[in-house]
């Protein structure tokens, strides 16, 4: 089977790939050892999955939001929240492709499509991620031939395992917080960078870090697009696509949880019959499925709107909030149905529950989504 971008065939292709090439036990060990799942990454490279969203002229497949949604959903069915390693890199590639210079695109996109180059996102700062711009203190000072970046970022994911980072920094003073910001492409091992791994509930195989930029010099060519326009780039459609992708990740993870739960409920016996015969257990599983179907519809509706060129920001945000909460509930119920086994790592559901819990917090918290929903109903802005 070879990769084709036609959506139905792409779904079958990725499903078969995930079944055949992704080993959840390997991911479990990587998580325990806090090791990047490089074998899984390599398998994805061989299956050409890192180039899904990258245009064909740069060696990718030119897939849009629908293709990415399908890929994430199918990968997450087996991988759970660990698909983050794919989605962060894909998100960086999209930012580069939409806003990078020709030279940046030619230099990095072909390598990214082959899975030979990874780029992480370094936007959130220690003083706050929801009020990202209000909290942003990192600055880049213009010097001869480039810029010097000074400041701190937190929750920068995969620092240990990426080649470069997209870093948001203030380059000009401005009355408006959204102006005077620039995105830089910075080598992850540049002189002046120190990164400290944070101890987290989940996603330990991928890792997230507190990063200090202590006078990090980057040349002029490291600017993405043009200086001072950085926020416009980040706030463009890519951000809301990211919400659709996170929603799809949660839907796929729920599918994986439900499959594992049904399979266990058919096998495990109590009082002389499989536990799946008990109505209480059936209703737990049925509730998971009802919410999965609703989350899936919201996710694909947002993707359809994006493809139609309509405003999809609210729908993408709603899909992300609903799917992430439904995913948490499903994984929690999955643990309940498996009983003690659900609490143990070899059944994978507790890891999926931990790894996907972050989706209610990032890239935007679900409280912030509710603020926007309330505003859309005509209520005054609360912040
Ligand atoms: C594992 C992990 C990986 C991450 N990866 C990355 C990454 O790769 N790159 C990156 O840049 N960032 C990353 N993030 C950061 C993530 O996007 C932020 O955690 C998120 O934006 C929330 O910011 P915060 O954690 O500072 O919470 P805060 O902004 O401090 O919010 C705390 C609480 O206050 C609430 N709150 C704040 N303002 C309001 C309001 N106006 N109305 C109602 N409630 C409000 C929030 O909803 C939340 O419940 C990651 C985070 C984690 C934990």
Give a quick precis of the structure.
The chain is α+β, with helices and mostly antiparallel strands and 383 residues long. The protein is built from 14 helices and nine strands.
Verbal overview:
With 383 residues, the chain is α+β, with helices and mostly antiparallel strands. The chain folds into three domains: 7-117, Acyl-CoA dehydrogenase/oxidase, N-terminal domain (Butyryl-Coa Dehydrogenase, subunit A, domain 1, Orthogonal Bundle); 120-226, Butyryl-CoA Dehydrogenase, subunit A, domain 2 (Beta Barrel), CATH 2.40.110; 236-376, Butyryl-CoA Dehydrogenase, subunit A, domain 3 (Up-down Bundle), CATH 1.20.140.10. The protein is 51% helix and 15% strand. The chain has 14 helices and nine strands. The protein has helices at residues 7-21, 24-33, 38-46, 65-79, 84-99, 102-113, 132-135, 230-234, 237-267, 279-307, 313-338, 340-343, 349-357, 366-376; strands at 119-122, 139-143, 146-157, 164-170, 181-187, 193-197, 208-219, 269-270, 273-274. Strands 2-3-7-6 form a four-stranded antiparallel sheet, with no helix packed on it. It has a three-stranded mixed sheet with strand order 1-4-5. A hairpin with a 2-residue loop joins strand 2 (139-143) and strand 3. Helix 1 packs parallel to helix 4 and helix 9 (237-267) packs antiparallel against helix 10. The protein is globular and about 80 Å long. The N and C termini lie far apart (51 Å). Flavin-adenine dinucleotide binds next to strand 1, strand 3 and helix 14.
Can you lay out the helices and strands and say which pair or pack?
Layout (H helix, E strand, L loop, with lengths): L6 H15 L2 H10 L4 H9 L18 H15 L4 H16 L2 H12 L5 E4 L9 H4 L3 E5 L2 E12 L6 E7 L10 E7 L5 E5 L10 E12 L10 H5 L2 H31 L1 E2 L2 E2 L4 H29 L5 H26 L1 H4 L5 H9 L8 H11 L7
Parallel strand pairs: 1-4
Antiparallel strand pairs: 2-3, 3-7, 4-5, 6-7, 8-9
Helix pairs in contact: 1-4, 4-9, 5-6, 5-9, 9-10, 9-11, 10-11, 11-13, 11-14
This protein binds flavin-adenine dinucleotide.
Flavin-adenine dinucleotide (FAD) binds next to β1, β3 and α14.
